[in-house]
Amino acid sequence: MGNPFQDQLLKAGLVNEKQVNKAKHEKRISNKQKKHSNTTDTTSKIKQELAADKKRNQELNRQLNKEKQQWERLAQVKQLIEQNRLDKDDRGEAYNFVDENKIKRIYVSDEIADQLSRGQVAIVKLGINYEVVPVKVARQIASRDKKTVLVLHEKES
């Protein structure tokens, strides 16, 4: 026998061989169950961690997609302004407007100043500069980024 305590109990006659074998068998079964439960606990922890990682990755991907769409909209706005801006006239008439609670001034020809007041053209912001674009383009820009369009006089019906 492998256990000296069991051997002593057998010699003393307190237990018989059948009881010793039954105790060994129960011990072996309980050890197997402990190993199996540890494996199950570890597996469930791993599954929980993987699920948490997946959820975190999905959230990060959603945020990255949102930022990417914002950058794409800003790039479209910039492209629309650069392709459709009208010429400014530094010797022309000063046209005053408000940008972030500050009065700004842009010099335009008399014709463009008249078109600004009638709502045929608009003033938009490109970086730190201001550009004049046709009203159709200004509406396209406003659909992508409303803060970029600074002056757009709507025609009254």
Shape: rod-shaped
- The sequence of SSEs as H and E is HHEEHEEHE
Tell me, rounded to a whole number, the average pLDDT: 86
Instruction: Report the count of strand segments.
Output: 5
Radius of gyration: 40 Å
Content-based structural category: alpha+beta
* Tally of individual domains: 2
Low-confidence stretches: none
Helix content: 55-70%
Largest sheet, strands/sense/barrel: 3 strands, antiparallel
Strand-residue proportion: 15-25%
The main sheet orders its strands as 4-3-5
**End-to-end distance, in Å?**
106 Å
Query: How many H/I helices?
Result: 4
Concise description?
With 157 residues, the protein is an alpha+beta fold. The protein has four helices and five strands.
Describe the structure.
This protein is of the alpha+beta class and 157 residues long. It has 2 domains: 1-84; 85-151, no CATH class. The protein contains 4 helices and 5 strands, in the order ααββαββαβ. The strands form 2 sheets. The chain has a 3-stranded antiparallel beta sheet with strand order 4-3-5. α2 runs antiparallel to α4. The longest helix is centred in the N-terminal third of the chain and has 68 residues, at 17-84. The termini are far apart.
